[in-house]
Amino acid sequence: MQRLLLLGDEAIAQGAIDAGLSGIYAYPGTPSTEIMEYVQASKEAKAKNIRALWSANEKTAMESALGMSYAGKRAMVCMKHVGLNVAADAFVNSAITGANGGLVVVAADDPSMHSSQNEQDSRFYGRFSFIPILEPANQQEAYNMVRYAFDLSEKMRIPVMVRITTRLAHSRTGVECLEAKQQNDIHLPENLRQFVLLPSIARKQYRELLNKQPLLEEESLVSGYNNYIDGADKSTGIIACGLAYNYLIENFADHKVPFPVLRIGQYPIPVKMVNQLYESCDKILVLEDGYPIIEELLKGMLDKGKTIRGRLDGSLPRDGELTPNIVGSALGRTFEKGAAIPELVKNRPPKLCDGCSHNDAFLALNEALATYSRGRVFSDIGCYTLSALEPLESINSCVDMGASITMAIGAADAGLVPAVAAIGDSTFTHSGITGLLDAVNNQSPITVLILDNATTGMTGGQASSAYGKVEDICKGLGVDEAHIKVLKPLHKFHDENVQAIKEELEYPGVSVIIPRRECIQTLNRRMRQKAKVKSMDI
Amino acid sequence: MTKDIILAGVGGQGILSIAACIGMAALEEQLFLKQAEVHGMSQRGGAVQSHLRLSSSEIASDLIPEGHADLVISVEPMESLRYLSMLKPNGYIITSINPYINIPSYPDIEVLLKEIWSQPKYITLDADQMAKECGSVKAANMVILGAAAPFLGLKPESITKAIGMIFGSKGEDVVNMNLKAMHAGRDLALKQL
Predict the structure, then answer these.
(1) Distance in Å, alpha carbon of A172 to nearest chain B alpha carbon
(2) Residues in chain A with pLDDT values less than 50
(3) Which of A499, B32, B75, B178 holds its CA 20 to 30 A away from the CA of A413?
């Protein structure tokens, strides 16, 4: 069989292509972005006519995938953990409708917040929705689990979550591929009311979902993704979830752990296996790369049983991702540490690129706001969030996708006038449009900067749903055309840009300013490709 | 055989091209390989690192344990010191001396180099200048790869082949220039040893 060198994300994508995928839906978000990118770049996926385009946001992606599942084909939807919050309405209800064609939801968590606002654990969402979760420990397992997830989804007729974390998503290794499966033919659900969640139907479907739970646990017992590995030293029994298993075995010569280990890769967790471990060991150590979910369940509110060690009792840090050293320390192992880092090594935080259009836009905004008191710029998720840091220090909030406009509305309602929102073009179409409609209906005295760099920049330059549509969307929402201004954020236009922003700050209604200049990264990439094509022509 | 390598640099400097060459060469020798990369926010001019693990037996963790790395390969001098806690006591630092200054508090380069030279084992090189002499400053990463080559436990022909495969689509001239850069780095490292 074919062996490929793949990132965890890419293994999931190739696994889906080989499992008979018909469509993939996603909005870019670190660490999930490369799944869609891989399918988009795959010649094989193109030849198989697999649908692979970015959606406006995670909710639209989730719903489109659900629609493909309704039509009987295999669909995948991918997002970062906080994207699942956006998709949550559709996601939770998709467990009640159930699936028809296999439906796999990939949630990529980011413990330690390498590129995120929080480190929420998507396994909570899976449990909350009563659906199975698969948590691969390595890239090969990620590949294999995707195929199993589609099969399980069709067998149990519910969506299945694949939960990964940053380290697996962005780590590369060799992966053996299986023989590719054919795509499903279109076939509608037998019951054409399956997806109609009227209360009377939803109640019935919900009970069916609850009734499936013992079957799902049985699946977890027999699938082979949960393993009881016995050990002679019964002083501690170890539960290791997903990636944590690698960190555990890394600490022992030849990867042989002397303690009994329950390796978890599939949820709901088989209680039988947990009980076996609990009964045969003096105490339990739980290793989870995320929130202490299993640990809390085992401990219970009263914590009257055997000692349960993990993130809650301080054996492991309460937050942040696990590492081999953290896991080793919890097992009492000591390490030869490397040398201390010399003091002269300074932090090097990320920053806006040289030549970035956002830089010119914020320099103009800063000057236009100079006559007002500080602290009135609400912003959003994207490269421009970096303008919170020195030297620009332009913005005062970054909470969730789209929150800039709506927070500005609330602050203006409270009397902070003018209030400013600064949002990127892709974030605007992701979740800013409805907020701008609120502002128009509310006649809010806010100035909205839609920083249009024609791409989704922070995640590496994916197509933006807003491309070529920003003014029309604003007009359509009812923003007065006289107060929609397009600027060219370049140093040479600085003074006139400052003047334009100043005028709109004084206007006591909704203004939209669109500083528009292509992302310097995508521009450079385009130029390189152009040069390449040209040299090929010669 | 196991080699645990930290690759260090600044987002946008292309440390992954070095990782790709080493990875390709390791595959050529049928070794196991895991390579954890940094994507996302830090790629915008922040400090970035990649954990690259090669082994003749199966590898468990994607992350190298602290104090376990055999090598720190850095394309930037200050970044070469950021991961000292990851390095074995007898591990080597292989670094370019060309600073990438995008923060106001960047240390004085003379002081910085003295700090590197006070470490037990290191190879330092003016990768930009050496790459220019080979044809293009763009090949600086291949100079650094070359300087690391004697420590990788890989056959020279595997590395040569990997460079050929990775740059092959850009034409023979580009491959040869990168090979020249790699050899220049290698020769310098062997001299400093």
Answers:
(1) 5
(2) none
(3) A499
